[in-house]
Amino acid sequence: MNRIRKRNSTPWSVRIFSLFGIQLELHATFLLLFVWVAWVAWFKEGSGLAGTAWYLVLVLLLFACVVLHELGHCLVARRFDVPVYRILLMPIGGMAQFGRIPRRPSRELLISGAGPLVNFVIVIVLWIAIALFSDGFQQGLSYNIPNLVITLMYLNLVMGLFNLLPVFPMDGGRILRALLALKFSYLTATRSAVLIARPIIAVGIVLALWQLDAWLLAALLAFILVGGHLEYSTVKRQELFRGLTIGEIARPDFYVADSETTLGSASEQSLLHPTWPVVVFRGTKVFAVFRPEEIAQLAERASHDEKLVLFAGRRPAVLFSDWPLELFVDQIDRSGQRIFPVINRDEVIGVVDTSTMESVARDAYGNRGKGIAR
Question: Which active-site residues does the annotation give?
Fold first, then answer.
């Protein structure tokens, strides 16, 4: 039996290498950034070959700093036993993917503050380098190494300060959420942080498009706005599932089949109870799971004498009844699997249907669940 596991890679991304055991991935759209920078430098700025190369090197160094920023988050998170899956680089910046965010405000403060702190450390290091070698550093737009270092220093300062804006789910917004969580519930703190962020983002998008002509900044702010809404929705679901185990939302209604069960036999059983999935065993192990609609579709196009196991796809992941639902709901969603067998002491005691998880959780929590879900 397969246990549920995290997705190996992000769609449209390429693995580059690992740092401290953390996978670094490059999104395919990242290449568009280099094309755009090269086009602006060559055609709009008239920088020539040397200037275009200078700008491209600056972008590479800046994203190296982005990686260090995200590593700051990741390494502190791992100190608190938070699973860290990957760092994804996109044209609008970097994103570290955690298995969960600690609900203790002090820990979220440290994790969120670590990224901007890395940028400020880089600023200090570069400032010291500039001070020590000031004779070789020149101001202006000449495309040389000294000015590259100066520009990189200022960009790190901007990156650190920008990330501290109280805009959820940026670092500053997470710090705000953690501070609010000292007094309010985690869900209320998240909702408040999202509401505070919305007018700030709206003003920022207007300024970026009509005053600064910075469409990339506007796209980043729009991405942050959507990200905040999605994370608030995730927190609402997790709050709904808090305190529940997998076993408490498992439904006991399913059919058991083995390697000799035919499609016709499974189809007849599905006609009796059309909402029950079929769990196929090979020996004592779960081999496949079929949804009722899958049985019906197979019955229309295949011989009823065929063995059901012949139509099985990949072996399904299973859940264990004592697992806390709150910690596994995101992995369940990302898996793409619809029906999960639930195991208790090596015995399948039920199934979890992802399409009915929330309604079952509401029933388990009664009025409390209904209130949270609104």
Answer: 70
